[in-house]
Amino acid sequence: MSENHNAIIFDWLSFTSLSDGVEDLKAILGLSHVQWIELERPFNGYTHSIYFNGITICWGVPQSWGGDYHKDTTYVNMSGSGCRAYETHSSNCDWNSLLALLVSCDDYHISRLDVSYDDFDNVLDMDIIYSESLQRDHMITTFRRGFWELGILNAKKERTVYFGSKKSNLMFRIYDKKEERNRSDLSHWVRWEIQLRDDRAFTFVRKYIENDYNIGEVFAGVIYNYLRFVEPEENDTNNRRWGLQEWYQKFIGNAEKIKLFEKKDEEYNLYKLKQTTTKKFGGATATYIQAVGVTQAVKDIFKECSKKNPKYIKLKQELDSQAQLIPEMDLLNRLDYLERMGLMSCDLSQFEHICENCDDIASVLSRLPDLYKPLGGDISDTLASS
């Protein structure tokens, strides 16, 4: 980061990957050649972590976490210093390509992205921003509340203004970076940060790509959409008709409003279906299967799902076109056949006994009717007597 001119920087990035291992992620970041340190105390709940200059890569999840998604993830956390280390040490540093990769498919999930504007030219004045933040009618904002905090730093009052909750998916943070860093050599340094999480981070990156990677336009557009400071007019009590304050107009320039919330049709796929089935309804489904058996549970599910959700219909059509969908009656017939054969209660060792000396699955299936006598007996009885 140059301290001689105003700049917008990426100042925090956290994401998970379902498809990449540790070495893959090192290569993606262009940091395979640097010396990583293994952390004695794993980071963020993972069982293994390595660290390099503000960048942490984590993998391995305790069984107590549960869920297939978490068990398969590798996590990358780049703090502010980590982002600078990426820019300095990476053999192929390219923010545009990295962020484009992270929104390219469902294998990646951006959990946090911070984008910061560093002002060295007195465009942002903390005295003005702080005082105007106390005047509710001087702001037009979609945030439910704006709040401010006073802290003590180096025996001076350091003022930080927040808009949005620290735990929300979108928050603005404005503070005196000069005081925080104790940079007496600088005359002015104020930082305006946008902190984004999950869906808001994803949409910000998509807007960034759609706007030809013009970070200034997207940064200012997001701020303009969610918060603007207006100048009171004597003859008009409606502050939404007031013009922008001069400093704020200079700050955002000619940016157009950019919303980060987009209501869009969900692109449903087999992975998301699995997540819904196993993570959201997995406990109930597993218990019901244990209670009534697989065959009856499947029959009940087909019977009760008469109301077809459009996203499921679309997914079934896509799977059917790829010959990946088992027809309903075919599935039920298979389950009925397996149950009649006693295979629903057959343990693994018994099935292995059936498969002995068989070269292919066809020969296994051809032997099943001979091995099982459907006269009320269980396959275990048949195998025991064979």
Q: How would you sum up the major sheet? A: 10 strands, antiparallel
Number of helices: 17
Any idea what the radius of gyration is?
Answer: 29 Å
Distance between the termini: 78 Å
Q: Output the strand order for the largest sheet.
A: 2-3-4-5-1-6-11-10-9-8
Summarize the helix and strand pattern as letters: EHEEEHEHHEHEEEEHEHHEHHHHHHHHH
The residue ranges in which pLDDT falls below 50 over 5 or more consecutive positions are 262-266, 370-386
Structural key phrases:
alpha+beta; protein biosynthesis; 386 residues; disordered C terminus; translation initiation factor activity; initiation factor; 3 domains; 10-stranded antiparallel sheet; REP-like_C; 41% helix; Replication initiation factor domain-containing protein
Folded structure, characterized:
One of its GO terms (molecular function) is translation initiation factor activity. Residues 110-283 form the Replication initiation protein-like C-terminal domain. It holds the Pfam family Rep_trans. Keywords: Initiation factor, Protein biosynthesis. InterPro entries: REP-like_C. Helix content is 41%, strand content 20%. Mean pLDDT is 78; it is low at 262-266 and 370-386. It has three domains: 19-105, no CATH class; 115-264, no CATH class; 294-385, no CATH class. It contains 17 helices and twelve strands. The strands form two sheets. The chain has a ten-stranded antiparallel beta sheet with strand order 2-3-4-5-1-6-11-10-9-8. The protein has a two-stranded antiparallel sheet with strand order 7-12. The chain is of the alpha+beta class and 386 residues long. Helix 4 (95-102) packs across helix 7 (198-210) and helix 12 packs antiparallel against helix 14 (328-340). The longest helix is centred in the middle third of the chain and has 13 residues, at 198-210. The chain is globular and about 85 Å long. The protein starts with 6 loop residues before the first strand and ends with a helix.
